[in-house]
Amino acid sequence: MKEAQKDLHIECSIEKALNIIGGKWSFLILKNLFTGTKRFGELQKAIPNISPKALTDTLRHLEQNAVVTRTVYPTVPVTVEYSLTAKGQALNKILKEMKLWGSQWA
């Protein structure tokens, strides 16, 4: 019985949320998308120290977790836009509270 308890891992809801938004760049990307749809280049300019690879990886992670949608337009060159899903918009209040906490306690 004790062996089965060792193998059992119950993931808490806070842990699940942090797995989705806990990346180094996620907060800054989300902050920029709260103001509306952005192209890759707009996000890169708004977050000066982020590398193209880090931006791509973070956007893919957020897209896989249904926080961000990626829309491709068949233009020349191809236009790609990123926007928040309803799930992503729901993070706005949480991140504002974290910002307030950080300004008070950090």
TrEMBL record:
GO molecular function: DNA binding
Domain HTH hxlR-type: residue ranges: 12-106
Keyword presence, DNA-binding: yes
Entry keyword Transferase: no
InterPro entries: HTH_HxlR, WH-like_DNA-bd_sf, WH_DNA-bd_sf
Pfam families: HxlR
Keywords, alphabetical: DNA-binding, Transcription, Transcription regulation
Name of the protein: DNA-binding transcriptional regulator, HxlR family
Species per Swiss-Prot/TrEMBL record: Evansella caseinilytica
